[in-house]
Description:
Number of strands: 8
Number of helices: 1
Structural class: mainly beta
Largest sheet: 8 strands, antiparallel, barrel
Order of helices and strands: HEEEEEEEE
Amino acid sequence: MDMKKWLFLLILFIWVLINQAFAQTTPEGIWVTQNEQTGRLESLVEIRKDNDRLSGRIVEIFPGGGLGENPVCEKCPKEWLGQPILGMVFMWGFREKGDKWVDGRVLDSRDGHIYRSELSLTKDGKTLRLFGFVRLVVKIGKRVTWTRQSSSN
């Protein structure tokens, strides 16, 4: 093989390594949520890992997003009842299993229910899919999609 081919392969190899290093393969980080009815930005959610489990809390609420001004959890179970939604840990317990995070729970502050849930990422790591469900014979639930906040925001 001549020198040009070796140089090309070396550059290609380095490029692949750099892309892999910067690819987001974990849900950890800040995510932008949208109101499903209006499409308006609703909140920023921070997902963290602690003892190999993921949890998430609301770190910012956008005006006009549908949550209201200084919202509190009015229909939530006793542990969360009356607490401010801003700063609330509303998702917890997700463990990694293959290319998903499973066995999680999500508190829906709108109806006060806690749902079983799973997370998955797109290959580029920029989109997160959260599936909250109840399990009867099959999983019946709802899927929402969040977008990773870019580092320039």
